[in-house]
Known about the structure:
The chain is of the alpha+beta class and 141 residues long. Helices cover 37% and strands 19% of the residues.
Amino acid sequence: MFWDTKPPPQSWFMYYAAQLGVGGRRAGLNAALLQKIAAAVSHDTKLPIRVHAQPSTYEDAMDNLLAFSDEGRQRQQVKDSDAETVSSIPRMKKRFGWLKIDGGYLCSSLPGAVRPVPVRLRTCGDREILPHSQYFATVYE
């Protein structure tokens, strides 16, 4: 769940934009990318998925990402002596999307043991669930 329901002071605008705007979209893109990687690993092909075992540069990371595509498998671009073959990945929870949640509902239905306690942060202000606010949450299985 995202705490911020309105833009904070000007100095924190980028944080807010990243969290509710780009960050929300980024979470969806990351989930989709992980699903594509899982599909590539489960796809039966004779060409292995080879990745840098210790990626240390942007180029290494991009090579690793490309390795999960059909083109990457054909190119076999990662030729390091310490390269690893990826043949399985752990099961990941599926992301279903976004949900808008009413603060009043959360305040009245969440048991005290699982309800987040109010937190006061010097840099970002108070963090608490307010009954008169709307919140956004990402829904996973």
